Amino acid sequence: MNEFARLLDRLALEPGRNDKVRLLTAYFASTTDPDRGLALAAMAGDLPVPGIRPAMARALVASRVDPDLFAMSYDFVGDLAETIALIWPRDGERGHNNPPAPTLSVVVEALRATGKTALPARLAALLDDLDEIGRWALLKLLMGGLRIGVSARLAKTAVAALGPVSADDIEEVWHGLAPPYEDLFAWAEGKGPRPQSSDAAPFRPPMLAHALDDASLAALVPGDFIAEWKWDGARAQAAVFTLADGERGARLYSRAGEDLGGAFPDMLDALRGAGFPDAVFDGELLVRDEKGAARPFSDLQARLNRKNPTPKMLRDMPPLLRLYDLLTLEGEDLRPSPFMERRARLEAVARGVQHPAFDLSPTRTFDSIAELVEVRKNAPLESEGLMLKRRDAPYVSGRPTGQWWKWKRDPMEVDAVLMYAQRGHGKRASLYSDYTFGVWRGSELVPVGKAYFGFTDAELKQLDKWVREHSVSRFGPVREVAHEPANGLVLQIAFEGLNRSPRHKSGLAMRFPRVARIRWDKPPAEADRIEALEALLPVGPPETKPSVPRESA
Amino acid sequence: MKTADVLTLSPAGLYCPMGDFHIDPTRPSPRALITHGHADHARAGHGAVMATRETLDIMALRYGEGFTRSRQVAEPGRATRVGEVDVTFHPAGHVLGSAQILIEAKGFRVVVSGDYKRARDPTCAPFEPVRCDAFITEATFGLPVFRHPEASAEVERLISSIKLFPDRAHVIGVYSLGKAQRVMALIREAGWDRPFHIHGALEKISRYYADAGARLGEFTKVATAEKLGLAGEIVLCPPSAIADRWSAGFADPVRALASGWMRIRAFARRGSAQLPLVISDHADWDALRDTVVETGCSELWVTHGATEPLTHWARARGLDAKPLDMVGYGDEEAAVEEAAP
Ligand SMILES: [Zn+2]
Ligand SMILES: [Zn+2]
Q1: Is residue A480 less than 8 Å (CB to CB) from chain B?
Q2: Could you say which architecture CATH assigns to the domain A412-534?
Q3: Per the CB < 8 Å rule, is A14 touching B147?
Q4: CA torsion sign, B115 to B120 to B124 to B129?
Q5: pLDDT tens figures, A474-505
Q6: Which CATH class is domain A2-143?
Q7: Does domain A210-408 have CATH number 3.30.470.30?
């Protein structure tokens, strides 16, 4: 456990993605089963241990430490788990002939086998046996709030680096596996067969688009591409398959591979009952109205936010899956085929199905860039702009270059990461309503602006709650919130213009920035980069005195 | 005799009226006894300075020979009459030449600790507990969350990081007097035999330590042109250089900071350290308490640092304890904090 804790401690301070992978791979290579698998589970959020409340941890330490000294220490350190870890009496460490500290698997087993009433005593005994960093990691794992900037994807990438398999290979078997992943490690190290995924429809990592810049637009050959609307919903992967007993099975995943089946049982029903052959679709998840048209994104958001939808939601907000790609059909992997071929098979499958929960995302051809510009001007309201897909592109996980482009309707929009929040004024004084956001420059976020309108009152409440739950530090009325590649909140920011500004760290000043959309679904790692903003700058000498009009709040 | 007869607080710091001298005064004073060479304790411009030979040498290195009008070497362990009191310097284990100062007035014993530590340091004489009636202690790390680990274990973490990242330079922020040399000596003990590459600000003092017998091995000043070529090497610099441009010139540097403050993650993050090394030249919470008990004192004054918790603890033990919260001893390890953006 102490070794795993040291890894977490180091990961938390190491900003570089590749460096994190190296730290993780070295740990996996030097750690035996089942500990390394439990470590992987901890990073993928699948560690089978009970959670504990801060009050319980406080009560444990209160019975061991002078309360005044604890209060002074907590005040100085500022983090409850860290304070307890550091102040925990270590009389046990002072004896000679101490047995070795418990391993991660010993800790996990001890906690799992302990009932609720015996949990405090068991936890205290474990804390006695660990060192400062081990105690910190254990408390963070149990209390939540461990911020190490490692996503499940990054952890899998590190497992893949052990040997010949790739991270995408691991994704494909992942959903059928369980901690401690012994067969996965054996396979990754080239010592065992590919694990049999017990899941009939594993998640396939999706293909993603690049934002279209001027140079790429100019170089675009119209005959090579086909255009589609970029729908304003949530990217989803849907699978229909045959179970062992001959029944229909279905699964719905988010773009990050989270299982959305619990939130959308009606979509699973529709997938099973619509008469599809076994297939895996890529599409846009939306919520439809009585006429079958897509409703605003906020309605979808309401459903995405509920792990279990209410009967009223199921009745009033039925889902719609707008299909745009076909990954497999009746066991055949279509991903290596060109897009136009997959599209033709998708259309054939869709023609055979009449169901209000599904429709087909239309495509259109264009003969010139000028025509495309016109098309984009007339984008329907429920779209965010255009997708341009290369006709001969295979379906490749990740973000291959030159295959798929997204060309948003409003060029003055950027996906930024929330970094700081400040309390508002007047009737908003009790809410965190002023948001400083940033975009990526290399592996760090640089603040590029501040927005304090554009959201509804209901959204403001959600934002305020999120800010309070994800604060990492506070100074006066300002809170710094988590903003790491895998942990944070993306805000889609709309703005009226952009100027150079030597006064800002980013070198940029935005005019009238506002929150166009809260992207609860998007990991910060996928927010925009500073280059995307710089491309929007007017040409000419930098303005020495940028005018940043501000609304008085 | 009471402690207040032997020591009072003046605007310049601790003052002994019976001997007419200050200890570590923060402003120019006619007669100063100096515990050790750190800038917050040893300032230039006094009329006369009494200190260990090493502390006098270090002051001369830092401020030039004219740092005081006259100087007197204090032999450790040997009492010297000053006015109506006897003063004796005893090793404090903090940095080379560091001393506690015992003042005896008609059999009443007061010890001013200066900065001190109880952990092993291959570059200076170890702390000697001195029995006294009143103990005047520092409390830089006077909170129960500060319990420094074995320094050798921290050095092991550094070495294994170098093994894992042989293509990156490991740049360690260390205070230029004491910490730098202790860290170098500890790394040598761990078997590292490649030359150290050091920032110019560490050079003079390190040379002095080496001449005084510290086993630092080979070290050379970093030239700007060679920075990129130092992958897999150990570079040492002042903490302030960690966060600024100086450290950016190295090959994908791993930034380390060696300080007791690194125990707290918020400090490590603020100091831009990827590899916080919890190595301190100050007593931790356990060492502070053990030391207070060992001196057998019945009165405790806490000069600077986290004065309140230690005072609270001492009072609960029945000691007559008071916090002084003296200003001006913005301890050198706190420089790590200040250097951070
Ligand atoms: Zn000092
Ligand atoms: Zn000091």
Answers
A1: no
A2: Beta Barrel (2.40)
A3: no
A4: positive
A5: 877 889 999 999 899 999 998 866 777 777 77
A6: mainly alpha
A7: yes
